[in-house]
Design brief:
By secondary structure, the protein is α+β, with helices and mostly antiparallel strands. It has one domain: Hotdog Thioesterase (Thiol Ester Dehydrase, Chain A). Helix content is about 30%, strand content about 35%. It contains four helices and six strands. It has a six-stranded antiparallel beta sheet. Strand 1 and strand 2 form a beta hairpin. The longest helix has 19 residues. The chain is globular and about 50 Å long. The relative contact order is 0.17. It holds the Pfam family DUF4442.
């Protein structure tokens, strides 16, 4: 089992373990800390986290900034990729295509999903992502494109 997934499984079994994991994840990938992700689920082919609506991620009209939403989606994708990538392989994001569908007026649930068939297409793997408001309205949806290759020998 991958180290990230093993750590999530171990910590999430404790009270506040999801919060501890979220902080550790943000320390490992500091840019994600800007959206203060709260990780809710990590497993092969799926990751889910919450981006809280707070002053630091709002734009001039008081909604969650589009780039902050993309940051949350990329964080979810990174967790999914870490939990799913085959042993001896690495992943690198190579692009993101998103559509902004509605205003981001609340906390957002960011989800990343794949299937085994998606990973069978390596080296190019597409991860489906979406962000949803508290009322269930989907505000962003898209695809993050990964490049999955064997880790270089050291």
């Amino acid at each position: 089992m991958n180290q990230t997934l093993a750590l999530y499984d171990r910590l999430s079994s404790f009270p506040l373990g999801d919060r501890v994991f979220s902080v550790a994840f943000s320390l490992k990938a500091p840019y994600f800390r800007t959206v203060r992700p709260r990780v809710r689920e990590v497993r092969p082919h799926r990751a889910e986290l919450v981006v809280p609506k707070r002053w630091g991620v709002q734009n001039h009209i008081g909604t969650v900034h589009a780039i902050a939403v993309c940051n949350g989606l990329e964080a979810a994708m990174g967790l999914l990729a870490e939990a799913t990538v085959p042993e001896g392989y690495r992943w690198l994001p190579k692009g993101m295509d998103v559509a902004y569908l509605a205003k981001s007026t609340s906390d957002l649930v960011c989800v990343a999903e794949t299937t085994a068939a998606d990973w069978a297409k390596a080296p190019e793997v597409d991860v489906t992502v979406h962000a949803t408001r508290d009322d269930g309205t989907r505000v962003v949806e898209g695809t993050i494109h990964l490049w999955v290759t064997p880790k270089p020998s050291r």
